[in-house]
Amino acid sequence: MIYKIPSTILTSEIEEELTHIEKTIDNLNTKRDEGLSKELLDNLKRQLLIKQVYHSNAIEGNKLSLRETELILNGMVINERPLKDEIEAKSLARATEYLYSLIDGREPLTKRTLLELHSLIMQNIPGIKAGIFRSHEVQIKNSQHIPPSFLDLENHVDELFQWMNRNSHKYPPLVMGAILHHWMTWIHPFSDGNGRVSRMFLNFFLLQKGYPEIVIKISDRDNYYNSLIASDKGNAVKLVEILSDNIKDTISSYEELINEDQRQKEWLKQYSEIKEDHYEKVKSKHSYDYEVWKNQMAVFKTLFKKSLQEIGNHIPQLEIEYKDYEVITFNQYLDILEDRPISNTGYMFVKLFDRNTQEAMTLVFYFQRLYVSKLLKIADAKRRNPRNFRSKKPIPPAIKMNISARKNGSQIKLDEKIDLVNIGTYKDQLSFGIINRSVKRQPWQKPKLDSRTDPPGSVIRDFIDQLLQLYFDIHPKNKKNTI
């Protein structure tokens, strides 16, 4: 029985995503090298450790909540939960901290460190022989793959490490990480704890390469398991995609913490010029604005997906796929308003594919500051935005959800005949940036954009009509083509 390296032939979109991730990580590493406070790094490491312990254990059936996991790792006792769940949390936390110490000490990833990690993860769990390879045959639940015989385990593990050392320079880190992670689950070297060890093994490799760790979330469990099954069948592309999606969450955590730290430093620097409570007052005001904005973005997404789904029910040849991301956090919201670096602002990707014509496109919804609006400066109320265009009443800080598209793997602008340009909020309701076609303009002039609060359903229906007509030549019956 020999492990066969699965296919990792990536689409141009995934390759573009990996390149973007690598550039972002390079920027983060540059900031770290320039000097980030130990307190900042320790804080981030603690946040990631709690998330890692919670999600990795939850994937394996542990019933602790994220909050309960945090309390246990802070030394509290949760009497309502089984002792085994508490032991698993503490043990995985110790193993993760040990992993950090190995990275700090530049220890290599070897068979010895693999066994030490398993020993720490499974420490004190009844009935488990921690730190040694299994001595019996096993079968993985809900999988057709039968792991190698225990008699051949050492040879398979040795082959994994030998191949890794020979080939790690030939693949992007996330692709190599996907192969190694799958290979370890394929070997299934332990009687229990294989998933947790394999995920830690993956992060050991990535941290060595200067990448941040990946937290595979419990909400991704089904897709994660399906990607491992696909890898068993010879294709690891879905696993690469899941890893890239999840590492972006870690990158966002880094960016949020760094930007908030910088915001705090700027506030302290201006301390003598502003009131002591200015910083928290401004944040509190924008916190309310953020909650309203976030809820309205969710309303738009729900209405848009509902309308598209109904269209799909009436046009059988049209396939619709969604890829959702969590809305940006409050700190990321402030970062955008202040023009601070933030790399992951995507909210929803929608792929449309016509089986009859083989035409396809992907809509990309992402967040960006409205650049004609005032630049938010929490730390210094006296600064003025140079982009106010000498307006007597500058537009308040605002974030819009913009729309772009991808076609044949490349990002493109939406057709200029499409009226809807962006989505935002006005007071407590949705607002839309819609091109005013009635205003005459010269060919070199940009179209006039009106901010309107039309009924969302009407705006969404018109937007979908235009997409289908312009990109798929699909026209509603009894309605003349007005494009």
TrEMBL record:
Q: List the InterPro entries.
A: Fido, Fido-like_dom_sf, Fido_containing
- The UniProt record lists the Fido domain at 109-245
Protein name in UniProt: Fic family protein
